[in-house]
Design a protein that fits this description.
two-stranded antiparallel sheet, 2 strands, Polyprenyl synthetase family protein, transferase
């Protein structure tokens, strides 16, 4: 039997290969529009990345006894939404970042207008892919579209980004900080897990409830580790400027709890995420592995 580390490494490698192949296939057949726009879209989507959200989608499908085939397109659609959000977050009007994944951000590599349009195009493309996702009945496709729209819109990721921008230079309570990150980061992570589970026609409400708790807790853990990496990470490893949150006076978990307190909280979140999977047998092992990976990652 493979060790958890070997199992996770194999899974993540396979996931990246399958998702990248699907992204390449779909983007290559995206039509004959503006070549510059298409180049910016490809630059943003295919320029690296850990593919954590697609991996969570595939791992959740496995947790409810489904093969990965029916989850590949939904997982790829999640990556499009993630890529679009990074393009827009990096813009001068937002976080004004010039480095992402170890190379120039999209608006630097191209220009601001092209970057905005590339993000817009990727966002709408994601829903088009879901509407035609193979191997799923219309009811499931509709449920996934609803899930992704809620997670990425004003009640999810976009709403969280708005709160983030409004909070720069302000003192937040831990409750206010968590509200922001449950929207900005956690909502799309939760959608990733729930969409993977929805590939199973016989998924139960109890299973969805447990996976929702897992994913929401993991979303917070992801952000706590992100905040720690911002103060402890190496720019050449994390792929973006170290200390950028501190430089912009953004509220973070270390700034509220201290570094040691943030690490303690991260351990508590990991324990809670794992506890939510107690009702799953070995089929939930990939989700358990992913939780450990999220809190121990270095970039």
């Amino acid at each position: 039997m493979p060790t958890p580390n070997t199992r996770l490494t194999t899974f993540l490698d396979n996931c990246r290969n399958r998702i990248d192949a699907e992204l390449e296939r779909q983007l290559s057949s995206a039509g004959n529009g503006s070549e510059r726009l298409q180049a910016a879209m490809r630059y943003s989507v295919l320029g690296g990345g850990k593919r954590i959200r697609p991996a969570l989608c595939l791992a959740a499908a496995a947790a409810v006894g489904q093969a990965h085939e029916n989850a590949i397109v939904p997982a790829s659609a999640l990556e499009l939404i993630h890529a679009y959000s990074l393009i827009h977050d990096d813009l001068p009007a937002m976080d004004d970042d010039e480095l992402r994944r170890g190379r120039a951000t999209t608006h630097i590599a191209f220009d601001e207008a092209t970057a905005i349009l590339a993000g817009d195009a990727l966002q709408t493309m994601a829903f088009g892919w879901l509407a035609e996702a193979p191997g799923l009945v219309d009811q499931v496709r509709l449920a996934m579209i609803r899930e992704l729209a809620s997670a990425s819109g004003h009640l999810g990721m976009v709403g969280g980004q708005a709160i983030d921008l409004e909070s720069v230079g302000k003192s937040l309570t831990i409750e206010q900080l968590e509200k922001m990150h449950r929207h900005k980061t956690g909502a799309l992570i939760a959608a990733s897990v729930r969409m993977g589970a929805l590939t199973a026609a016989d998924v139960t409400e109890d299973q969805l409830a447990a996976l929702t708790i897992y994913s929401q807790t993991l979303g917070l853990a992801f952000q706590v580790q992100d905040d720690l990496l911002d103060i402890e990470g190496d720019t050449t490893v994390i792929g973006k400027p170290q200390g950028s949150d501190l430089a912009r006076a953004k509220p973070t978990y270390p700034s509220l709890l201290g570094t040691a307190g943030a690490r303690d909280y991260l351990s508590q979140l990991l324990e809670s995420a794992l506890a939510s999977l107690e009702g799953f047998g070995k089929e939930g092992d990939l989700l358990r592995d992913m939780a450990g990976y999220v809190v121990a990652r270095t970039h």
